[in-house]
Amino acid sequence: MFLGFDDIVKEAKKLPVVSLAAATAYHEKTSFLTEYVDETLASHPKIHDLTGHNPLQVMYDNHRHHAAFMATVFSIANYELLARTVPWVYRAYSAHSFSFDYFPVELKAWVAAIDKYMATDMTAEIKSVYAWMIKQHENMMYLSQIKKEHKLPVREDWLEKKTSFLAAALDGDHRKCLGIAKEFVLTGKDIEPFYLQIIQPVMYEVGMLWEQGTVSVAQEHLASAVVGRVMASTSMVDVVCDRVMPKVVITAAPNEYHEIGAWMISDILEHDGWDVKYLGANTPADDLLELLKSFKPKVLAMSVTMPFNILKVKQLIGVIKADAELKKILVVIGGRTFNENPELWQSTGADCFAANIQEIKTLFAKMEK
Ligand code: B12
Description:
The chain is mainly alpha-helical. 61% of the residues lie in helices and 6% in strands.
């Protein structure tokens, strides 16, 4: 008898909270731990069966993401995030030919690495979390096989065009996608429904198809590139150059390569007259801090998609809030990881959270008054 999603979350929440010292020690040792796990797995006699004959780099990337993710889970003490993310890891990697047997082998290698590189008085709670993950292996396999639909609802009158846009984007047909965009976006006020009824649902479906192993990484890159090119053209329609509203900096978090959500928010706020500086993907923390000091915005809006970037974001917001010059900047946070785990944003130290374009517009409208 396996536990469902809600019950596994309840079980996970019973795990012991890792002390700040142990969480910090794990974080500081991640490169040693990762290297050890890489080497242990690479020399496993059945490694190619375990990884489904994928290039070993795919596995190495997973180890790096695992270490950053677990460091985040320990330092924000959020086991719900752990319980909700592990089934996705099982689902995505098994859809890309990894054997489920890879996971217990991997998890045992992390335990051995912890024993090797961390001081004994720091490891008890951390190892009990890993022991729980190993014990839940079969339950995680079960959860990973429950079909999850990531399709966003689309209005009936947009559905057909959304379907054509998706097929053309996966095919890299920029002109066809631009043609569809031009049918819908005639003035600035058309951008928002176009983004919400076509671009966002299309990108979520691309993600679902990649997760299921139905579309390749190359097709997913093609679709992202087409969407970027279409957005760059459509967002310029009757752009207002008067900057009547306060200054806002919008960026994806450090190490965050997903930028389309942040870009959409920038376009919409810019059309509303806000003085927007949009930085795109993966802005390094120090450079962002420098820009905040020189530009002096009223708001910093930051986008986070991957849960393994939350710790970096928390550290960055910590620096902003400890700096006399910067602490008055309102830090608004958003992105997929917070939409999926609604209380999570609070552990980042941000001032507020908005789930989507409408919510951030409402928030900003209040600030105008
Ligand atoms: C395109 C894409 C990529 C592209 C991004 C290209 C680009 N130029 O942005 C690339 C190839 C770089 C990429 C990389 C990876 N990706 Co990717 N990617 C996607 C995909 C298909 C679409 C993302 C997107 O554009 N969504 C559309 C936007 C509009 O939606 P949104 O971001 O949610 O934004 C809305 C709201 O969240 C909100 N919002 C967003 N930001 C902000 C900010 C503020 C301040 C506010 C208020 C609101 C707000 O408003 C927006 C509009 O409503 C998603 C699937 C998905 N469901 O999103 C996977 C997805 C996010 N990726 C995923 C993964 C695993 C990865 C990789 C780890 C893959 C790998 N093995 O390397 C890497 C990680 C890279 C990194 N370090 O960041 C997984 C994450 C799963 C998980 N549980 O963590 C997903 C969900 C795919 C899947 N179904 O499995 N990816």
